[in-house]
Amino acid sequence: MMTPDLTDAVAGAVLAHPSVARLDGGPLGTVATHLPGRRVTGVRTTGEGVEIAVVLTLDRPLAEVGQELRALVRDLAGPVPVDVTVTDVVVAA
Predict the structure, then answer these.
(1) Which string of DSSP letters, residue by residue, matches the chain?
(2) List of the chain residues with pLDDT < 70
């Protein structure tokens, strides 16, 4: 289970990636971590790992960006499975 600080660190690192337009809650808004007094949309922990849901820009191959995001999360959370869901894409500005 991730701590609030780690959840925020994962969200910040993912958002800082140049190909990430934004975090997203997924089709039903279930990709989120509920913390005291707030919700971090787009980052969810399970007993088996971490799930992130993102909207990406179309500036690079999606599979390549997905691998980079997995590595980013593992750098922070340790050697856990990381599921990356691309919920939408936008044209790079």
Answers:
(1) ---HHHHHHHHHHHHHSTTEEEE---TTS--EEEETTEEEETEEEETTEEEEEEEEETTS-HHHHHHHHHHHHHHHH-S--EEEEEEEEE---
(2) 1-2, 92-93
